[in-house]
Amino acid sequence: MTATRPSRKIASRVSQLTGEGALAVYVRAKELERTGKSIIHLELGEPDFHPAPPVVKAVQQAVSDGRDRYCATRGVPALREAIAEYLQRTRRLQVASEQVLIAPGCKMALSLAMMALIEPGDEVLYPDPGFPIYPSFTRGLGAKAVPFALREANKFQPDLAEISAKITNKTRMLIFNSPNNPTGTVFHKEALEKIAALAVEHDLWILSDEIYARILFGGEYQSIWALPGMAERTIIIDGFSKSFAMTGWRLGYAVAAKPVIDAMDMLVLNTFTCAAEFTQLAAIEALRDSTHAVDAMVQQYRKRRDIFVQGLNRIPGFRCQSPEGAFYAWVNIADTGLPADEVARLLLEEGGVAGIAGAAFGAEGKNYLRFSLVSAPNLLEEALQRIAKVAMNWHATVS
Question: Is the pLDDT of residue 397 over 70?
């Protein structure tokens, strides 16, 4: 009789994780391209710009100088100092370099912060619609992900009464990002003040994802960190992918009170050791922004937003509020009479326009599509023509 070998199982936490809808759409879009179909890619949140020439020159110089060695687990001191100065200059935040930790990408910075602060059984509030990694990683840590809705009727601002009602004695953290992915909403100062008051009242950590903070179409960025009593309980997540078009460089950072940074540093020591030295040195040049590349890029996004949102609102069954920041168009398609995933499928398969059905960002997104404004204006105009052509199939229903 043969003995039964014990089964080797994958850890259960992996089953609690979910992916990103954008990547699945991208894979299908690339398959269609290989068959010869023309595709306009509006699914990925990846700028079509590239880093400014001084940044490219800086990384080349760093590699040439042999700056490809292990470095400090918390990050190159010069970069941490530059980030502290950058946050003071662009957001009026008082941050010390010892409160900054560098990671290979914002997702890693986010993950480190969550691992350092969340226990199994805790509850974490997060926005719906929102970045799908928030609830995914929360569940992976054995905690409960609790959504709070961002609704069109409220211009996608948070409902503070709903948030307050969902706080329990197990709630440990509230996560949000402003400008929001996918809605493009910038949280009002009043909303930030009320969130801060709830955090103080209930002793919550606030994880403020500020990756789109520089991509604003009006006004000055307001960080919850700057509000009274919030620096000690806020963790800012930011990086170089969006504002500096450095997606493949994989460089992000966290800003928090030193005890939190110390805890995250221990996790770095036990995982990836350090981010690449040469990319960190080039990031210092990116923060200087000597060619004003960030402002030029934001101006282009504003132009694209105006073209695309106005065009979408002329298409039968589509309704789109103009985003205040980031580079996404969040489109209500309920009046088409079709499910959002079917509209997305038709646009991709028949129109050659890749967007994402909103359910990928949470239950509140079931009647929406997200398009990324990451193509040149002429391609966005062509995308609008293709969408309008496909829309003729549901025009009768709308009429």
Answer: no
